[in-house]
Amino acid sequence: MDKNTVIGLVLIFAIIVGFSWLNRPNEEQIEAQKRYRDSIQKVELAKAQQAALLEELQQQKANTDTLVNAEVAKQFFGNFSESAVGEEQFVTVENDLLKLVFTTKGGRIYSAELKEYKTHDSLPLVLFDKDESILDFTFLSSNNRVLHTKDFYFEPTLIETENGQKLQMRLLIEVDKYLEFEYLLSANEYKVDFLINAHNMSDELDANSNSLEMLWKSKLKKQEKGRKFEARYATLNYKFTSDDVEYLSESKDDEKKLSNKIQWIAFKDQFFSTVLVANQSFTSTALESKISNNVDYLKEYKAEASVVFDPTGKTSTTLSYLFIPNKYQTLKKYDKLYESEVDDNMQFRRLLPMGWSLFRWINEYLIIPIFNFFGKYISNYGIVIFLLTLVVKILIFPFTYKSYISSAKMRVLKPQIDEINAKYPPEKAMERQQATMNLYSRVGVSPMSGCLPMLFQMPILFAMFMFFPTCIELRQESFLWAKDLASYDAIFEWDAYIPLITPYFGNHISLFCLLMTITNIVYTKINMSSQVGAADQMKVMKWMMYLMPVMFMFIFNDYAAGLSYYYLISLLLTIVQTYLFRLFVDEEKLLKKLEANKKKPMKKSGFMARLEEAQRQQQKAMREQMKKKH
Fold this sequence. Notes:
Beta-galactosidase, Chain A, domain 5, four-stranded antiparallel sheet, alpha+beta, 17 helices, 20 strands, elongated
């Protein structure tokens, strides 16, 4: 080993030792880790003991229907035993927007209804009912019993307040000793405040436990007409504390274990969400989303997490529910409402999937304000979509016009291009291309000038594609034959399964989608008649261009009628626009103007200069290769 190698090894060793020393835990951290390990061991031991006890007790109660009788409850639940036996009661808390039914078994929300909305078949819109959703907290008693709130009967007290209703659910040990779930529903709010308090429970709860283990499960009901389309927008979303919003896969079973702190978790449908918010954040979070095989449900969601809990009762565990429609203005309102209470960046509006940053920006600051402006004064959303489309067309008119002029220039130059092609056979492709580019330079035409305006329009088209399927304002709004602009408008349906058709097309034909396809084919024919290019290339292009509308029909047949209607109107306006361009743009004058450009001193653009230089270099290289061969 040489000297440099020895020095290198010594330095590496010194760095490792120094890094380990700098990152060693302090005494407080060591003690906290010890308490954590002891707590885990205590919980695991208690679970094992209780599992054995439960098996024994279940054998003793073979002739009873309840979980445990009073005598068995005392052995299993200790001082909490009196609350383990009881009769389930229901308490209703409501305002103008929500109707919530609570059960005393577990002190949880039993049913949640949004009163302003109905399902596609005109039934009350209930997000969940009965055991379709369960919220359970696990805690450790002072004598090492692992207990679940779902196993206990809470004592309810409903209190009318100045601004709503307050429901206190108490898991009683004694009159002045209890674990309390407190729910507060204010008037005209989708928000339900949820506090967990321990009152005089220091000697009943494990003093070393500073958290509750939460289990939240829910089956997502089918609310809309098109299951396939609705499921596409049903996701389990979550937001990292002071960070962005993420979600599990919407198209397959998915699960994640998260080590970072989580601010909120949302079980989201296409148009409605149930959001659980933690003021102090969730930790050690595990999320799971499964596609349901039951025809009445879309997905099955599960969230496991830890929440901060003070067994001394000095500090409350502060949570809140949002049972909320996925409406942009409503979500934005609650973003602001939580700014002062929890975080200045809650991002509930991210529950609306509006695409990547650029598309979302276009939707938030252009499309939605225009849509809401017209919706404020016009009740017919078919007319609102028409006006929105018209405004968008006006905004992109300069790009459309420039693209058409570029196409017209290429069209009037076609005879001269044909002469160049006749002069230079295909085997002299380099000379042909150089002559063509020279012609474009002399007349002042750029081949790219027709493509760039179209590229500028694409973000708006994609933004609109994301906007319509998530627009709750269109839900159950009728227009012409479409009874629901947020779902497909079937004019013909069938029950039989047809291979290759049913999986991709569905068992129906949507009229707006069909009309859009026909109009798209007509527009393609109009557009292709004015294209300039080689005959062989045009044949391939025509085949592809006519195939695309048919492909779009397969894609959009399941989509919202409002989206197909928008594209239909947009295509019709484009066709009208094209004929007006042809009427007012004099191509003879345009050709004369291009010919006049030939007499002017030729000024090459940077792009053309680089292209010609590249061609010269390529020709030089080809000549040198030919010399070497000879």
